Amino acid sequence: MKQILAVLAIAAAILTVATGATTAARAQDYPTRPITMIVPFAAGGPTDVIARIVSENMSKTLGQQIVVENVTGAGGTTGITRGAQAAPDGYTIMMGHMGTHGAAPALYPKLRYDPTKDFEPVGMAAGTPILIVARKDYPAKDLQEFIASLKTQQDKANEANAGVGSVSFTTCTMFNVMIGVKPTRVPYTGTGPVINDMIGGKVDYACDQIVNLVTQIQGGNIRAYAIATPERSPALPDVPTTKEAGLPDYQVSAWNAVFAPKDTPKPVVEKLNAALVKALDDPDTRKRLLDLGAVLPDGEERTPAWLGNYVAEEVARWAPVLKAGGAVQAD
Q1: Annotated domain spans of the chain
Q2: Which of 125, 220, 275, 277 has the smallest CB count inside 10 Å?
Q3: Would the pTM count as exceeding 0.85?
């Protein structure tokens, strides 16, 4: 019996070594076919636009096309769930963001993935700053007047958002909690209709990503009170920061980052990260992203380790905010 067990142990060891060698060889040859990048939101939205710009350059570096697949639903969690369950071979990756990998655990208690455990972080792609905006004829001339107005007329004010789980919903929850107001919250099916109705004067205010707002603010169709970043955006140099406008603690960005399924081989993750970093250094890619108002990562912020730590911080950050805003769903 001992001899049989010894033989089985040796066979198992040989199989393990062989499997490991095969996996390493495959990782070394990666990629040998097209890669799918799941974008968990509709085509044309901020995350989709950033994913397409970045993946276009990454494809050139990797020598294989990255095909963007839009898988929508449940605030982006449907697509990310699918990505988390994909084979960990590097041929299915995801463009996650603040909602799917930060706010989702608080918003969806029955979430089928853990942002901190079920992925291999690849790297940060771009941050998309949040702006506090209102209809162009809103009477307040600056952010402090706007906040004072909301506090005295919150029973009449209405805030538009793209529905539970969206960036506009989550970031305006933070804003409302921070200034202590409970306006009427009007959900839409996307930020496009929100902006259209704001231009038409049907809704009072919203919080949204700069990518969606630059053109309308520059055209004078909506009013921007502040941008939630430490420094002004080159895309909107006349819009003050929240610190300048008197609300310094309101700092938030709807970041977008690349993830792979858990247990994707380290060499594969390193190749994907290298391609992402090269894309962010490419002059044309950088210009396209910066023209949208995106903030690009530098130095350590480009590493998988930094992204993994950042995701954990974001999950911890959003839970109390969303609970205070009454947005946390019952289990």
Answers
A1: 33-126+255-324, 130-245
A2: 220
A3: yes
